[in-house]
Amino acid sequence: MSLLRRIERNQQVAVDQLTPVAEHSTRLEELRIRRAPAAPARDAFQDLKSRIHNKLLAELDPKMDVSKTDEVRQTIEEMYDAMLAQENLILGRADRQRLLEQIVAEILGYGPIEPLLADDTITEIMVNGPNAVYIERAGRIEPTDIRFENDEHVLRIIDRIVSPLGRRIDESQPYVDARLPDGSRVNAVIPPLSLIGPVLTIRKFARIPITAQTLIELGTITPEALEFCKACVQAKLNMVISGGTGSGKTTTLNVFSAFIPNDERIITIENAAELQLQQDHVIPLETRPPNVEGKGEITMRQLVINSLRMRPDRIIVGECRGAEALDMLQAMNTGHDGSMTTAHSNSPRDTLARLETMVLMAGMDLPLRAIREQIASALHLVVHQERMRDGSRKITKITEVQGMEGDVIVMQDIFTFEQQGIEGGKVIGRLKPTGIRPKFMEIIEAANIHLPPTIFGMGRRY
Predict the structure, then answer these.
(1) Are residues 168 and 235 in the same domain?
(2) Which of 282, 393, 408, 417 could form a disulfide with 248 if both were Cys (CB 3.0 to 4.6 A apart)?
(3) How many domains does the structure of the chain reveal?
(4) Burial, 356: exposed, middle or buried (Cβ in 10 Å; 0-12, 13-18, 19+)?
């Protein structure tokens, strides 16, 4: 057989072997295409909403005062009815009203999340990109069927929140802390930091401020422990409220601050103003981020230092998270008694360890013993709060800072939470006194406040 003939024969064998493989691959591809779900058609309702929304924006007077909500809403309703009649659109009463409310929310409110903000049973709103919106209700996270149109839609709502506050969010500053007019805390993160699109987190505050009685009814604290904490605040003891994220520290700080006498000058310092003090003489201060040129930033530490020149009776720092802890301790040690703050930690002992770390962040190169002496001298009380597995928030320890022994800060629990079990998914337990009277009782009694021995568990059965 010639060489040419052998080559032709080998080529034919190769073709015969590859043909079944190719046919099999083609059949698999056809099957894959046949089984792939068809792209969902765009919701006709959303198309209609976008079309009418864009027409309204084009025809509305840009000089209209948006703060006059009722007048603007009436104008939008009139234009909306005219547009539906012009397009010969016939909608049911429910659909007609739903479409109107969504359009009004886009123009005057916060778009798709407006109904969530109006629902008082919701405590947190989490927008994970345009297609995933979650809420927290009764301490439990659950998904919703609310959707945004696209990333730009979410960015538009974020910009509407932060712009009136003088904050900005863009590629050079891709995250921001802000607040809603009702004081609710807002955090936003956008690409390139977020890989799933713009992320928006809103921690709502109750429309009616939570009171001490509410904390008792919720099981956060017992009447005896609350009376003790009230005496500590009125006697001007320095206090840190500690706990994890979402444990209710700021709410408890709000409640405790209500015990401050009305004739005292109070200065509050926060990254984003959240505290809702009811006293007459309150000066709220808020940090400022840098501008587009990277200048003009005002930090917590600068505000704490400046507040010392404002003749405060009390300084309340929304949260210590950095070098401002050193200046806060200095303020507590230099006559500004009764100051309060919050800190993230896992226990009262961890709270002091975190304070040590934050003081070191100030870059003063202080020896550890000197820092601990400052902490032991400045602080009287650590109130630790936790979010339990059933979603409830409970104060689990109220601990006295007694002083130094050698190189160690001595602490003593005054109240501690004893969990008795779980019934129906609910944590059962009670905050009980340990039977020990704190050493700072002399300060409380010097303020003419006399607590009965039963508060500390003496002569009382539980």
Answers:
(1) no
(2) 393
(3) 3
(4) middle
Report the distance separating Cα 259 and Cα 444, nearest Å: 14
- Burial of 249 by CB count in 10 Å (0-12 exposed, 13-18 middle, 19+ buried)? buried
Note the residue count of the chain.
462
The model's pLDDT over 176-213, given as tens digits with 9 standing for 90+, comes to: 988 888 878 899 999 999 999 999 999 988 777 788 99
Domain of residue 150: give its range.
109-207
Task: Give a yes or no: residue 19 inside a domain.
Answer: no
Q: What confidence tens digit (pLDDT) does each residue in 97-119 have?
A: 877 777 777 777 788 898 899 89
CA gap 379, 382 in Å, rounded: 8
Q: From the CA atom positions of the chain, what is the Rg in Å?
A: 30
DSSP category for residue 28: H
Whether residue 62 is preceded by a cis peptide bond, meaning omega within 30 degrees of 0, is no
Q: What is the mean pLDDT of residues 4-28?
A: 47
Largest Cα–Cα distance of the chain, in whole Å? 120
Answer whether 0.70 is exceeded by the pTM: yes
Looking at the structure, do residues 223 and 331 belong to the same domain, yes or no?
yes
Q: Are residues 99 and 142 in the same domain?
A: no
Residues 183 and 225 placed together within one structural domain of the fold: no
Q: What percent of the chain has pLDDT over 90?
A: 45
CB of 340 within 8 A of CB of 380? no
Do 316 and 375 belong together in one domain?
yes
